[in-house]
Design brief:
- The protein has helices at about 1-25, 25-30, 100-120, 185-200; strands at about 50, 55, 75-80, 85-95, 125-135, 140-150, 155-165, 170-180.
- It has about 200 residues and is α+β, with helices and mostly antiparallel strands.
- It folds into two domains: about 1-30; about 35-200, Protein Transport Mog1p, Chain A, CATH 3.40.1000.
- Strands 1, 2, 3, 4, 5, 6, 7 and 8 form an eight-stranded antiparallel sheet that branches.
- Strand 5 (about 125-135) and strand 6 form a beta hairpin.
- The longest helix is centred in the middle third of the chain and has 25 residues, at about 100-120.
């Protein structure tokens, strides 16, 4: 009788251990995944609502200008669009340590600094100008940049970028449309960046 009771107790304990392991690897792991921006958290478009694509593992295709070459295969991204030419993208990378995340954020900043020169090298008919819009006190820090490109045939585009980090997670947000620096919603984009970094935890 005692032997049977002991076996039953051991079986129940084993089942409880398995259930605990499953609980630890499913809901907790899901809760640890960084959240992405919602369409309503992007700079408002005056004539169109934002539409969000799915959160997708891997590098975005096509790669975004300026930072695309630095994005690893472990990236996770979400693309956004409007009914007009305005688009946006968020890419998030979870690194194995805080130091690796710091190094990756520094690499992205280097790519941003080199971006105007590289764009002109890739296409001599393009002129590129960069503006630094400052740092944001959110998470472990974020920075905002603007890139305006013009072509010899008259096309002009404005893109805003932000690079933010919280612990071992780094996120990049890009917003872009036809236009120049006067069309850039810098204040609204900074608010979007703060929201994006706050969602990393």
């Amino acid at each position: 009788m005692n032997v049977q009771l002991r076996k039953g107790t051991m079986a129940l304990a084993a089942m409880a251990a398995v259930a605990g392991a499953v609980a630890a690897t499913t809901p907790a792991a899901a809760a640890a995944e960084p959240r992405f921006l919602a369409p309503s958290e992007l700079p408002p478009h005056p004539r169109s609502a934002w539409v969000a694509g799915p959160v997708t593992a891997g590098q975005p295709d096509p790669l975004p200008m300026c930072v695309g070459d630095a994005l690893p295969s472990t990236s996770v991204h979400r693309a956004f669009r409007t009914d007009y030419d305005t688009s946006a993208l968020q890419v998030t990378v979870v690194e194995r340590s805080v130091q690796r995340a710091k190094d990756f954020a520094a690499l992205l900043r280097t790519h941003m600094s080199d971006c105007p020169h590289e764009l002109v090298e890739q296409d001599p008919e393009v002129t590129a100008t960069e503006r630094f819009y400052g740092k944001l006190a959110v998470g472990d820090g974020a920075e905002v940049f603007g890139i305006n490109t013009t072509t010899t045939w008259g096309a002009t585009d404005i893109n805003l970028f932000s690079i933010g980090r919280d612990g071992n997670v780094v996120t990049v947000v890009r917003w872009g449309e036809m236009g120049d620096f006067t069309n850039a919603p810098v204040a609204a984009f900074k608010k979007t960046t703060v929201t994006a970094v706050n969602k990393l935890r």
